[in-house]
Specification:
The chain has two domains: 25-137; 154-193. The chain contains three helices and eight strands, in the order αββββββββαα. It has helices spanning 2-22, 138-153, 155-193, and strands at 27-33, 44-47, 50-60, 65-71, 83-89, 94-100, 129-131, 133-134.
């Protein structure tokens, strides 16, 4: 009976060790944004177009939105100089958080974001704090398009545009007459030489 208990206990122990070894070690860090820009809990985090994490929690602060980002693998190294921005994609304004590394980090084999000796001046470490930016946004596109259409509705703008076109036509006609006269004078001088 004792041997069976030891055998079952040993098998369970090695099974759990195997399962936990296969499981990746995740890490988290905080991102501060001025505006949520459509991100919610569960919003994907992408690096070079591949999903590497998601948003686990969000909190509204007095002057910002504080987001808890979870990266699925401690092998995903985010350099400190990376741009972290919200981007709206697709027709339904799905938001993602894009991480854009600016430089290649060559010493990634010797450093881990979950280690106690993590160098926070080079990479984003576990439980660190970074600032995020606003990237591509459909709301900005709609505002810009509205401003442009309002400019075209302005009668003063149309009058100035009409004057510009009229002046351009007069200048083009003057240049055309000048070119014709110049070519005519060149022909006369070449004929007078013979």
């Amino acid at each position: 009976m004792r041997k069976i208990f030891i055998l079952i206990f040993g098998t369970c122990f090695f099974y759990f060790m195997y399962v936990f070894k296969l499981k990746e070690i995740k890490y988290s860090f905080f991102i501060e944004f001025d505006n949520a820009n459509g991100i919610v809990i569960g919003t994907p985090i992408k690096m070079r177009g591949m999903q590497v994490g998601s948003i686990k929690n969000m909190q509204l602060k007095q002057n910002c939105i504080l987001v808890l980002a979870e990266i699925y693998s401690h092998n995903t190294i985010i350099t400190k100089d990376s741009i972290i921005e919200t981007t709206q994609t697709g027709l339904l304004n799905d938001s993602v958080i894009d991480i854009i590394p600016l430089n290649v980090f060559a010493d990634y084999l010797n450093i881990s974001p979950v280690s106690f000796s993590c160098d926070s001046s080079k990479i984003v470490c576990n439980n660190s704090y970074v600032l995020g930016d606003r990237g591509l946004n459909y709301d900005d596109l709609v505002r810009s398009t509205t401003r442009i259409s309002q400019r075209f509705d302005d009668p003063g703008f149309f009058y100035l545009f009409h004057l510009f076109l009229k002046s351009s036509i007069e200048v083009a006609e003057g240049v055309s007459i000048f070119c014709k006269d110049f070519i005519y004078s060149l022909r006369l001088t070449t004929l007078n030489k013979f």
